[in-house]
Structure formats: C-alpha cells, structure tokens
Design goal:
Distance between the termini: 39 Å
Shape: globular
CATH class: Alpha Beta
Strand content: 5-15%
CATH topology: TIM Barrel
Bound molecules: 5-hydroxymethyl-3,4-dihydroxypiperidine
Number of domains: 1
Number of helices: 15
Radius of gyration: 21 Å
Number of strands: 12
Structural class: alpha/beta
C-alpha cells in the first residue's frame, strides 16, 4: 500500500438507513485468469476472444488479474478498504466444465476458500451465478437460445446453493440479462457474437425464465440466502422534444427497463415492445411468466450513465456537452436518483442495491500513485445521488463500487480501467488509487459518525 492520499473530494453528506451495506464488485472472467487450471472448461468468452478483431487490444481472459492465484492478497485489499460486502461471480465452467454432468471439485474448492476467506475477514460474500461466462459446451447446443439451457442453469444454481448457501447471505441469478441478450445476440459485439434480434428476444426470455425457476428451486430446497437479479438500467431521455425522439425514448425504455422489470414484478411483457417486435417476440410457454415473477428479496441495479434516444440510429450514452468517462459514457449522477425513484414508484420493489457503479478513466501511475480525482468525484457524486433517492423514499440498502480491480473490460480488453485498485498487468502488482483511499476514508468517516450518534443517543 502506498502512502494514504488526503481526500481532496468532500464526502457526500447523505443519510442512509441503518444496516446500509458498502462493497466492491468484480466478476470471475474479468479477474480470475487461470482459464485452463484445475479442470476449468472453456466459457463462451474464451471462445469469443479467439476471433480476430472482436477484442479491442486482441487480449483475452487467460491471465487477467491472476486472481485465482492471488485471491488472498485481493481479499486483504478488500478488508483494508473497510467495506462489509464483496460481490463476485462463480465461473460456471470452473465448477461444471460442460455446463451439465460432472462437477469439478477443484473449482468448487476455490470458491470454498474464497468464501471462507471473506468470512474470516468479516466480509459478506455476495455471489452472482451468471456474469456472462456460459460454458462453451452449452453454446455448442444453442446456448441461451436453447430452452434446455434453462434447466441446466437451475441445476447449477441448486448445486451452488447446496454447497455455499450456508455461508453466503445473498445470491444473484444473472448479471445484466439485457447485455447478454442484446450485445451478445443482437448487435453481436459481445460473446457469443450472434446478430439476430429474434434470437436475442428468445435469449432474454430464457434468462428471465431460468432466473424465476432457480429462485423457486432454491426456496424449495430451503436456501436461506436472499435472492435477487441484477439489471443494467438507465433513464432513457429523448435527444430533443420532437415527438419522434420521444417515441423512440419510450420504446428503448421498454426494451432496456420495462422488458425486464414488467415480467419480474408484474408477470407480463410490455405491450408496446411486443407490438414493435412482432414476429421477433419470444416463444413463451404457459406458466413461464408466473415463474419469472417469483418474489425476490432484492433488485440489483447497475448504473453508469443515462441513455439518449433519437428517432433513428442506435440510442447513445451522451447528448453532448457533459463530461464523459473513458468509455465515452456521459457522467450523469442525477440519472441515478431519477432511476431509483422511478423504480420505487412504478414497481413493488422491496429492496434495491446499487450492485455496480463506477467509471473508466485514463489513469496514470506516477511514482506509485494514481491521482484519479475524476473517478473519486464520480463516486462521490453518485453516492450523493443514492442519498437523494433514499430521501425521496427509494428503499436502497447498499452500494458497491465497480470495480475493485482494473480488469478485462470485455470487448475493450485491458485498455479501459474501472478499478479503484490499479493493476500492473506485467507484474500483477496492485496499487490503491486515490479513489480507493477516498472510499476507505469515507467509510471510516461514516463509522465514526454513527458511533458518535450512538453515544449521543445513549446520553
Ligand atoms: O465491466 C462491466 C461489468 O462486467 C458489467 N457491468 C458493466 C461493467 C462496465 O462496463
């Protein structure tokens, strides 16, 4: 750890409910590496990365942050930050190389060590079952477009809950089904690289169905963990007041937000989106929607920016004029308040957590220091936006920074850095950035503030 850097960005002054949790988040494929170690099978991202031109820097996840071997050092870093929660994902092909059939004990033991290591450090393991790395063997049978993958996922979920459920307080079924469906199967810029809207719609339905059936199965087997799903959501604004831009914003809101929230919380798909999809709408069997809206304990919200829609062309993530992150995404913290308040008003959501929030910025490491004040400001402003949503009644119970470490940013490879901890990919050295020091000091400040309030309350 380098010398602490004074927090030059003021701490947000927000009033949070008792028990509010603070965390950092990662995912397996983005950090673990060790892709052929101890019996792990290939995932669709291993296969996708071999295709020329699909990853900006031609890289892959074979080594990544080598977290598979450096997990203890990484858990020590998490403990040093003073967070109470760590969100990570299980790599399905590490624990079940073919996505069906035999289990890989060595892979299961890795997650045993990780979970036990977190608990020993006083940190709650918050587990995601599917953060995009479907076993490649299942893709060979059609992947998420094939309804049989739904039952393979339910089996996987049941086995993970039986193995880890006694030690894990929260389980997420899927991370960002919109990304898997649309970027993976409609635009094809993510694995498995398919470009077919009808397939994408079927995939979205199967992801939701597998979520609902897994929730039902886990409850039936007595799983005590809180269960939920994580969606990537943004308010969708029209690029102008023109009616055509407004109509487009309404449709894209339907495809991004209501396509997932309506079946999860109301048991139906939105009519306006179904009408536009026409023959591309998914095949839905009797009972599917009842399964999808199985009650959940929390909704995970991943928020990075807003969407801006215009009559033609794809919707974008900036309207011009506002500062952008290194991903080209507009920095728009007030969109997080707007989103959370809207979710609270429109749906019967009992609890929401911010399961990802953060920014990629063009960091420079100089004399062992990364002065990422842009990222620090981003975090401070978004945490304040969460506080504003809570003040308006939104039931938000936690916040997690994306990401603990710089990591493999999918089609952008290693060029985009989201970590609050810098990773030198040559030496694998970890260095806390200024944002990590700031986050740590902010959490210390909150603890001191609540201890002082307790003292005052006791008179
Ligand atoms: O890195 C991703 C993560 O895997 C899912 N949510 C968005 C992040 C930044 O693009």
């Amino acid at each position: 750890m380098t010398a602490p850097i004074a927090p030059r960005i003021p701490f947000p002054d927000c009033h949070l409910p008792a028990g509010f949790s603070w965390g950092v988040a990662t995912s397996a494929f983005q950090i673990e590496g060790a892709h052929r170690t101890d019996g792990r099978g290939d995932s669709i991202w291993d296969t996708f990365c071999t295709q020329p031109g699909v990853i900006a820097d031609g890289s892959d996840g074979s080594v990544a942050c080598d977290h598979y071997h450096r997990w203890q050092e990484d858990l020590d870093l998490i403990a040093l930050l003073g967070v109470d929660t760590y969100r990570f994902s299980i790599a399905w092909p590490r624990v079940q190389p073919d996505g069906q059939g035999a289990w890989n004990e060595a892979g299961l033991q890795f997650y045993d060590r990780l979970i036990d290591g977190l608990i020993a450090r006083g940190i709650r393991p918050f587990v995601t079952l599917n953060h995009w790395d479907l076993p490649a063997a299942l893709q060979a049978q059609g992947g998420w477009a094939n309804r049989s993958t739904v039952m393979h996922f339910v089996d996987y979920a049941k086995t993970m809950a039986a193995r880890f459920g006694d030690r894990v307080p929260a389980i997420v079924t899927h991370n960002e089904p919109w990304v898997m469906a649309v970027l993976g199967h409609e635009t094809g810029i993510f694995a498995p690289g398919i470009q077919d809207r009808k397939v994408a719609c079927q995939v979205a339905h199967h992801l939701l169905l597998s979520h609902g059936l897994a929730v039902r199965a886990l409850r039936a087997q007595g799983c005590q963990a809180s269960l939920g799903i994580v969606l990537n959501l943004s308010p969708m604004h029209p690029a102008s007041p023109l009616a055509a831009d407004q109509a487009r914003a309404q449709l894209e809101d339907g495809r991004l937000l209501r396509w997932y929230m309506d079946p999860l919380y109301r048991g139906s798909y939105p009519d306006d989106v179904l009408a536009v999809l026409g023959d591309d709408a998914p095949a839905v069997h009797a009972g599917d929607l009842e399964a999808i809206c199985a009650p959940i304990d929390f909704l995970g919200v991943n928020y990075y920016t807003r969407g801006v829609a215009q009559a033609s062309g794809p919707w974008d993530v900036h309207a011009g004029g506002l500062p952008l992150t290194d991903m080209g995404w507009e920095i728009y913290p007030q969109g997080l308040t707007e989103l959370l308040v809207r979710l609270h008003h429109d749906y019967p959501v009992s609890a929401m957590l911010i399961t990802e929030n953060g920014g990629a910025f063009p960091d420079r490491i100089t004399d062992g220091v990364v002065q990422d004040l842009d990222r620090t400001r981003y975090l401070a402003d978004h945490i304040a936006a969460v506080g504003a949503a809570i003040a308006q009644g939104a039931p938000v119970t936690g916040y997690m920074v994306w990401s603990l470490l710089d990591n493999f940013e999918w089609a952008s490879g290693y060029a985009k850095r989201f970590g609050i901890v810098h990773v030198d990919y040559t030496t694998q050295q970890r260095t806390l950035k200024a944002s990590a020091h700031w986050y740590r000091q902010f959490l210390q400040h909150l603890r001191q503030r609540s201890a002082a309030a307790d003292l005052r309350a006791r008179g």
